[in-house]
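User: Please run a holo structure prediction.
Assistant: Happy to. Please share the sequence and the ligand.
User: Here you go; the ligand is FNR.
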Amino acid sequence: AAGRGARKDDHVRLAGQQWEPGAAGPAGGRDAEFDELEFVHHALTGVSLERVDLGVELFGRHLAAPFYINGMTGGTERTARLNRELAAAAAQTGTAMACGSMSIALEDPAAARAFTVIREENPTGLVMANLGAGRSPDDARRAVDMLGADALQLHVNAVQETVMPEGAPALSEWLAGIEAIVAASEVPVLVKEVGFGLSPRTLAQLAGIGVEWADVSGRGGTDFLAIENERRPGRDFAYLTGFGQSAPAALLDAAAHRAEFPDLALLASGGVRSPLDVVRSLALGARAVGVAGAFLRAVVSGGAEELGGLIRAWRRQTAELAALLGAQGPDGLLRTDVLVRGRLREYCELRGIDARAYARRGA
Ligand code: FNR
């Protein structure tokens, strides 16, 4: 597992670089489609901050804030320390948290420690296990048991697997594999991308096999194409840059096709940099929002203390934004007027989505 462990450390290091302030990555605001969503300001429709409650229900549990720490890491010494810090921040603030892919721990019991530290730090919080599509129902059960997890994230990462040196994915077997896991799992299963978006067609396929939770995890944040490309000298996949859909595009598209998966709970992630991006995601219909790179940056820089402080600040700021926008809760945000501009508007036009309807929802 030494090679696989090195890969986990590479991911953290390279993703961390992308999120450094001033880097060309998401923190630098490189053509973020989230910024193409603008709220129309109505100066007299605000509500008092005390009346705002952005608490959400996730897997039958109540969370005080509509965002969570998305799946990132585990499997090595370094990533065990990170998971411990992430879990401590999650426990301090009552934030839900996922770990990174646990396949390394299924194969190498010594790697399991890097995941079980999460439960040690956070015995009662909402914790999600994580595996790739293509694993067996028995693997899924072992991963969930190892963490005492409340839910299981299953990532579908076809683009990443195509580029990564270790990858040779059996893509055509994934859907049936997910179906088998969903049928056998004792905890809710959340299917997610890793930064390339889930289309309405994919969401309908998932709903059709019994999946009840999906995170569109779109392009524009942590860029696994660039990360795996860097790790693969000799072959250059840079020509694929920009492949996939952003989270805002995926949410707009999903909303236009809602009738095809009426009971699927939609989560969003990918490129969420701020409380404003959280509120934008909720306004487009996300139930809750996953944050990876922006929280990784905080934990690498200042451990659990810095991340805990950031989470508390984000919580206050999401509530302040909702108050400003006249929303007492997530439903109120669905009635905000949102301008869809630029490339996002063009996406809507080409996909037959009525972007103009978003500009006058409160009418
Ligand atoms: C990830 N992500 C991820 N997702 C997953 O399902 N399993 C995994 O093992 C990992 N590993 C991982 C490592 C690191 C270092 C990062 C930063 C991210 C993907 C993550 O959950 C999310 O989908 C994307 O990173 C997009 O969100 P951000 O980073 O733009 O907020």
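The mean pLDDT is 95.
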